[in-house]
Amino acid sequence: MRCMMCERFSLSHICFACQESLLTPSLHKRKIMGSIPVYSFFPYNDIEPLLLTKHTDVGYYIYTILAKRAFGAFAKEWQYENSVASLGIDDYTAEGYSHTAVLNRALKSMNITPRYGKIRARNHYKYAGKSVEERLMNPRRFHYQPFGEKEVILVDDIVTTGTTLSEAAETLHAQGKKVILCLTLTDAENK
């Protein structure tokens, strides 16, 4: 097969040389709800074509590579005194896989336990390209499934306005959970 980035022959969808030179994470930080940090790993423009594979059969492989390079590396280095759960936002299986579940799985480590199906939207309105006002008028109405950990890391592929992450955090807070941080591949503000 050919590398999706440089088109050289490769045994992976993105060759090792491109992974090393073009997919080196650099953390970008913003906050939602005044105090919850949201960390993103790549500038949006650097990975936009890769994000567009999300709803294709190749998307699973691309998201697995991105997850390993960003979320997996984060999990190896992250130090925290308590055990926490990580939750992929709306991790429904579509197109044969869930992109947020793939990202979430890469966080498995000594003190991070990925949980699945714990915060899913009841409203499946498509937010892509929509204004903040339209997003606010069409809330996700998240459904919460109980789990043991009190502290949570929220996981999504992209943060645009922060409304999805904020609504998920509010749902969890109402259940006595504390969202300590959010992780995304990219921040649409960081172009």
Q: Which features would summarize this protein structure in a list?
A:
single chain; 191 residues; alpha/beta; Rossmann fold; 6-stranded mixed beta sheet; two-stranded antiparallel ribbon; globular
Commentary on this structure:
This protein is of the alpha/beta class and 191 residues long. The chain has one domain: Rossmann fold. Helix content is 31%, strand content 25%. It has 6 helices and 8 strands. The strands form 2 sheets. Strands 1-2-8-7-3-4 form a 6-stranded mixed sheet, sandwiched between helices. It has a two-stranded antiparallel sheet with strand order 5-6. Strand 3, helix 4 (99-105) and strand 4 (112-115) form a beta-alpha-beta unit. Helix 3 (59-77) packs parallel to helix 4. The chain is globular.
| CATH topology term | Rossmann fold
Which CATH architecture? 3-Layer(aba) Sandwich
Q: What is the gyration radius calculated from CA atoms?
A: 16 Å
Question: What's the number of extended β-strand segments?
Answer: 8
Low-confidence stretches: none
